[in-house]
Write a structure and sequence with these properties.
It contains four helices and three strands. It has 78 residues and is α+β, with helices and mostly antiparallel strands. It has a single domain, classed as BolA-like (GMP Synthetase, Chain A, domain 3).
């Protein structure tokens, strides 16, 4: 996840927190996919609306959104 986000978005801040352990027993946990919190800041977000920023992030993560990530909480500091 880190490598893909760095390559696509060149973030000035990137923190990824695996919160999967907080969701033990949850339906998504059974599939083996993770719950993550993402804090990211990138110049590529300048002038974009929140939905556009999220789409860039999802695009950078590509297939991981379907194969490895069950839930992604995104924080983009101003």
């Amino acid at each position: 996840m880190k490598n893909q986000l760095e390559a696509e978005l060149a973030p000035s801040q990137l923190d990824i927190v695996d919160e999967s352990h907080l969701h033990a027993g949850h339906a998504g946990a059974k599939s083996g996919k993770g719950h993550f919190r993402l804090i990211i800041c990138s110049d590529k977000f300048l002038g974009l609306r929140p939905l556009q920023k999220h789409r860039l992030i999802y695009g950078a993560l590509g297939e991981m959104m379907e194969t490895e990530i069950h839930a992604l909480t995104i924080s983009i500091p101003a």
